[in-house]
């Protein structure tokens, strides 16, 4: 790691032409920077992680372009002999509402069958890989049918600003379970100890912040003033709500708005 | 595509405060920019490609960070039902000298056996994938044991400067065969027609240029002046050459130097 | 320009494996992408602008790193003979609350004096520059004392996602007046016509969205439930409010919260 | 600083699946990586510099986009009261051949006059700046006519690969004198001590390497084989040489080739 909370303060103050001050004022400054999205001071901290990740998950990871990467080469070396396996109670059901998500688990019986099938196919793939190597096939070609569950390793180096952006996206509930586990460990176990003031500010102003669109602000204004019918009329007009069999059914955007109302302890107007 | 050869000229001339000139002068300017590595004018051209690539190859492709990418999502949709297959005479032998390369082909009998094994394992993987989907497993999880040979699709958008950098690396003889085929098509079929002046300059000053290190320049100076023994002594001292059973054996760097001497029509001094 | 609203849809759908649909569904998709911060499809559009900007302003502009730039070179050519001048009624007063802002204008008398002084110093600087050139000084050195108000020109090429990020920051009320004028023209005159659906989504979900921090959400929850005293107590405890001469004075963060309450039509609790 | 020579080795070996080895083998590996342009391991080292630079020079510096920057803000604070001044014997003459360069110095008499003029205009600019501040003008506006010679300060953080690229361009003879001085200090005083093996490899394979274009290789081949006339004919045909008053005058590209021949101890064929 390079830098810590104090490096952020130092960098922000170069733009201000003054030196470091007391702990209290430093904390206020960091929180101000996070709140106002003055991101460049957070780029002054850098961290390098040695990670071991299934290639499937790595495919998502590597989409974050602002990082330095050195990955284990299966052109140069024999592929790591380890694949991600799934416990019988860990097979997740395809989500209904969200096409790219999962919800709940399959029953344990099905799970057992799937886990067994997983082990078989992984062993078969490895056997084919090793047969190829034995026959003299180049490593770069032999690997072509390894399963995506095969582990890879990498050094991954990134600055704190871009790391927080990674965490914001990958700790989110709609991130895939597997990468979310990595993100949670990086966030709660590593970053929180490395830059504790920044981490708290991140939780307060980014991860747990709630954003209301221009339209939601208008609706919320109505609701705060008790103009419930006006809000409902607006939502119907925008087709956020559609009458189905006598009840108002919310579309995706209305459901998102409803979830935000809940965090405010407010009732969804279409459920009154 | 956005821009062409003339956009490069236009951009270079903004830095010069003058407008476009005749074809001849434009060509001279582009060649000058390429030669002097004034790269920013080449960034004024942009191209978007729709590519279909096996994931194995895509893993290398995506390492080029300065591009815009939208990839087919196997979280959202069922994975493409196509995998890269290998003809019996296309199984490449592991290279001896270069740990990360291949050289020559395996015999056709072995090739036939390997191609059959390939087909079997790919079908088995797909079957497992589809069984999982049928059992209700979320797509994001079901895909975990798809082979790396599975095709993906993407829109890939990049500026000309970064594209030429990609091509320089991926058209090189030490790039993996599979990605080299894509690079060759992009270069010779697309870029050469899109920006013909730039393409010729790229071939002359980048792809087919030869670089001599400070040390090689010293050795070449000796050789040009007929001081062969002096060059040999230098190479022995640096351990580029080692006596093995009465002959001088070149190390990797000496072999690279030897290849450059060949392009100059010069004999390798240790082979005289 | 390269691409438009439909390119965004096309790119998003590659990740989904389906083609373009009707106008209504395309609009919904673009708005969904903007709302959920799926940014990569917006990178499929690219724009190139030819801009003329005072160097002072360009210094801020160029801090946005994800763009391609070719700037007029005052090493190669004589500097552009134009400097940004200020009308007598356009001299802005230093802001009190915000150290890096301005508020209101100076009186016209002072303004006249300052505008005259501006013209004099600019002419003097240009005279010195031209004397140096006449004496044979290299352009790269002669330019060293040109004022920051000297105009420069550049081709500036950027993808739509990064352009929107630029606009979000530079159209904000706390951006400097000069660059804000450029941002407004780019946004309202150019982008709004180029990608009208995206522009509207940007206004709704980004530019005019309001974000509440975790802490503000807690306070708002209290206020919505009528627990005004609880909210006030919380704010005092966090030192957002401090008693000064019998009244509760809000700190910077409380003032920001107060402004958000206003957009909701709610009273600031410390002003009741 | 983060990392050193051994971090590069470690990163390269993750891609190879093996740990660190002896000093000799580490050196060989680093030199191999530099030679083969395997750049990613060099990104594992990071350095942060606190620099004080005239804005004129900073304008060139900041064009290198792959760095993290926090600059002194003249919106927030009063501008640094220091400007780059020029000794009477340091005024450089405009180059004849190279439109964007300088060569030699002006005579000391002219130099004295220019240095005096420089001091006067800088003082006048500062006076105007301070009068504006005194009249209450916002700092962000008052600064608009500060000369480009005004010093700024910044924290500048960059990885080693991108730093070496910066140094390659800015230590080059055609880089402007002012930034070249900074580059030389960073290179020879800082990087050389931080990562000595990498620095030596950089000098050997990058900074002091010589590249020959495809065309130059052809010409050199002729010259090495003693086919001088063939080389000359080729150069005339390509218009690298033009007869002027009975002698062959080389164009810019031929002059560049001539300089390379000199490093090889070879005569320029058109001067025989």
Structural class of chain A: alpha+beta
Q: Sheet bearing the most strands of chain A, described?
A: 3 strands, antiparallel
Task: Report the radius of gyration of chain A as a whole number of Å.
Answer: 25 Å
Biggest interface and residues each: A-B, 55 and 54 residues
Give the integer mean of the pLDDT values of chain A: 95
How many individual β-strands of chain A?
8
Q: What ranges of chain A have pLDDT less than 50 throughout 5 or more consecutive residues?
A: none
Give a structural overview.
The structure is a homotetramer of 272-residue chains. In chain A, α2 runs parallel beside α8. The N and C termini of chain A lie far apart (53 Å). In chain A, the strands form three sheets. A three-stranded antiparallel sheet of chain A has the order 1-5-2. The longest helix of chain A has 28 residues. Chain A is built from eleven helices and eight strands. The radius of gyration of chain A is 25 Å and the shape is flat. Among the domains of chain A are: 40 residues, no CATH class; 58 residues, no CATH class. Helix content of chain A is 50%, strand content 15%. The first copy, chain A, has 272 residues and is α+β, with helices and mostly antiparallel strands. Chains in contact: A-B, A-C, A-D, B-C, B-D, C-D. Chains A and B meet through α3, β3, α4 and α5 of A and α3, β3, α4 and α5 of B. β6 of chain A pairs antiparallel with β6 of chain C, so a sheet runs across the interface.
């Amino acid at each position: 790691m390079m830098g810590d909370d104090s490096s952020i303060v130092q960098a922000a103050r170069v733009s201000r032409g003054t030196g470091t001050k007391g702990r209290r004022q430093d904390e206020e400054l960091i929180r101000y920077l996070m709140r106002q999205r003055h991101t460049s001071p957070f780029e002054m901290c850098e961290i390098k992680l040695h990670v071991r990740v299934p290639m499937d998950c790595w495919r998502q990871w590597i989409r974050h372009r602002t990082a330095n990467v050195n990955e284990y080469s299966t052109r140069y070396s024999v592929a790591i002999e380890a694949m991600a396996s799934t416990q019988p109670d860990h097979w997740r059901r395809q989500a209904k509402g969200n096409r790219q998500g999962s919800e709940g688990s399959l029953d344990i019986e099905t799970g057992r069958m799937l886990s067994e099938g997983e082990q078989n196919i992984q062993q078969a793939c490895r056997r084919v890989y090793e047969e190829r190597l034995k026959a003299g096939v180049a490593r770069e070609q032999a690997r072509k049918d390894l399963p995506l569950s095969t582990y890879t390793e990498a050094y991954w180096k990134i600055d704190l600003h871009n790391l927080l952006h990674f965490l914001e996206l990958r700790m989110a509930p709609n991130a895939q379970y597997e990468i979310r586990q990595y993100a949670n460990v990086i966030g709660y176990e590593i970053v929180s100890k490395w830059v504790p003031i920044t981490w708290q500010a991140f939780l307060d102003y980014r991860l747990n912040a709630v954003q209301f669109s221009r339209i939601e602000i208008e609706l919320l204004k109505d609701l705060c003033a008790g103009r419930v019918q006006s809000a409902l009329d607006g939502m119907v007009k925008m087709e956020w709500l559609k009458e189905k069999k006598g009840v108002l059914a919310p579309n995706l955007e209305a459901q998102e708005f409803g979830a935000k109302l809940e965090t405010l302890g407010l009732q969804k107007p279409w459920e009154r």
